[in-house]
Specification:
The termini are far apart. This protein has one domain: Tetracycline Repressor, domain 2 (Orthogonal Bundle), CATH 1.10.357.10. By secondary structure, the chain is mainly α. The longest helix is centred in the last third of the chain and has 28 residues.
Length: 194
């Protein structure tokens, strides 16, 4: 009879994600993972496979977490403008709990050009995020908050790029005041595009 797992899989996956997030894929060794996750090496291999497979699973885990958070922020908002402002606020202030930037952006810049599996996952995450953001913009267009001069899909992609840029800026010494001004200016652009 096999031994029962002595850990909760989701909790140790969260730890692996945090370590990859802090250090990057290349700088994280299996020994680092075993120590940080608090499990035996054999348990790590039996449950998650090798380092690369574990990394891919952390991307999937992050994708589920972030899409749920995005949807929660959007659903709580009374208007599309408020939803977008709340997303910017989340991106600007979210660096307090995890100052390592966006896990997906980090993965994209470190590995996507040389790792086909990572690239495919990143493309899927970006497409899913752009779809969610496009739906939010469409809500604003239908309610009359935003201009209809540009399609909701195109504006969702532009919004996504802007949010990613904000995440990068948030890791620099740029003031939160300036970042919030950028967010306000973007929302203004959605309203006046001609």
């Amino acid at each position: 009879m096999g031994r029962n797992k002595e850990f909760e899989e989701e909790a140790v996956l969260q730890k692996a994600m945090e370590l990859f997030w802090k250090q990057g894929y290349e700088k994280t060794s299996m020994s680092d993972l075993v120590e940080y996750m608090g499990i035996h090496r054999k348990s790590l291999y039996d449950t998650f496979g090798d380092k690369h497979t574990l990394y891919l699973k952390t991307i999937d885990y992050y994708t589920v977490c972030i899409s749920e958070r995005l949807k929660t922020v959007i659903l709580k908002a009374e208007t599309a403008s408020k939803g977008i402002k709340d997303l910017f606020t989340f991106m600007i202030n979210g660096t307090k709990e995890r100052p390592w930037g966006c896990f997906i952006v980090n993965a994209a810049t470190e590995l996507a050009l040389r790792d086909k599996e990572v690239e495919e996952k990143i493309e899927a995450v970006f497409a899913q995020t752009e779809k969610i953001l496009g739906e939010l913009v469409r809500k604003g267009q239908v309610s009359g908050e935003f201009s209809r001069e540009i399609s909701a899909e195109a504006l969702g992609k532009i919004l996504h790029c802007t949010l990613l840029g904000i995440r990068v800026y948030a890791r620099t010494s740029m003031s939160k005041e300036k970042l919030n001004c950028l967010a306000d200016d973007f929302i203004l652009l959605l309203k006046i595009v001609n």
